[in-house]
Amino acid sequence: MKRLNRSVLLLVAFALCAVGASAQTYPNRPIKLIVADSAGGAPDQLGRLVAQKLSNNLGQQVVVDNRAGAGGALGAELVAKSVPDGYTLLLTTTAIYAILPNLRKNLPYDPVKDFVPISRIATASNVLVVNNELPAKNIAELVKLAKEKPGALNYASAGVGTPAHLAGEMLNLLADITVVHVPYKGAAPALTDVIAGNAQYIITSPIAAGAHMTGGRVRALATTGAERNPGLPDLPTIAETVPGYEITQTWGIVVAAGTPPEIASKLSAEVVKVMNQPDVKEKVLATGATPAGDSPAAFEAFMAKERQRLGDVTAKRGIVLTD
Questions:
Q1: Distance between CA atoms of 137 and 241, rounded to whole angstroms?
Q2: pLDDT higher than threshold 50 for residue 19
Q3: Residue 108, SS3?
Q4: Cα 296 to Cα 109, 137, 246, 264, 266, distances in angstroms
C-alpha cells in the first residue's frame, strides 16, 4: 500500500513538473488564432493586428485561421474541441458569448464551460450605414421611410445571430418598423451588397465599415451606443431618435477549457501587453473602436453581464434559433 501511495505521489509530482516545464517553454511552436468570421470583417482585422504583435512578442508565429459560419458557432466549436494546450486561440465575439447562447438551444459549444477567458481586446458601438442612393439622411428619415414602405427595405447582417442581426431586429422592435433581414457570411460581403444597393443598410462595427465610410462608398447615419462614439463624435446615436436603443460589440481572446493555468496566465499578460502598445492603441482608435486589455476574471464577469442583458432583449423579441 505504501509503495502504491508513493507511486501515485511520484506520478502527480511528475505531472506537475511537466505542466511547469510546458508553461516555461511555451510557446515552442506556431499558435493558431481562430477568427470565426470571413476575411475583411472587424474580427479579422483585429485578429490580424493582435496576431502580428503577439508573434513579435512571443517569438513564435501566430497564424490567423478564418472559420466563418453559423454566426460564429463553427469557429467556436473548433476551439472548444481543440487540444487545451494554448496553441489554439479563439477571437470571441459578442455573438459567440452573448447572443447565440440566447438564440440557439443546441449550440455545439458551452460559452461558459468550454472556454477559459484570456482578455478583452476591443469594444465599439456599432454604426448604421446606408447605401448612398437611399434618400434618408438621418434616423428619423429612415424610420419614416420604413413606415411608409413596410417590408420594402432590407438590412444586411454578417449572419443569423450576429450583432448586426440583433441590432436590426432591435431597431424593428423599438421603432415599430418592418425591415427585412438579409444574412450574409460575414460583414465584408454584407457591406459589399449595401454598397451595390442590394440591401439598404447594415448596422455593423466601425472597424468593418470604416474604410467604406471614409471612401464615400456608404453614408453613416448614427451609432448604437448609449453615448456617442468617441471615435465618431459627429454622429448622433440611434437612441437620440429611438429611445432605449443600445447595442455594442466586444472582442476578446479565449482558449479551450483545461488549458494549463500557467499558459493561460502567460497568454493573458501578453495580450494585455499588446493592447497597451501605443501603435496598437492608435490603430484600434482610428477604426472607431476602443482598445481594451483586462484580467481573465474581469473579462469573464463582463461576458456574463452581456449574456444576461442581451438575453433579455431576445426574450422580448421572441427570437429563438434551433439550428
A1: 13
A2: no
A3: coil
A4: 19, 42, 25, 9, 11
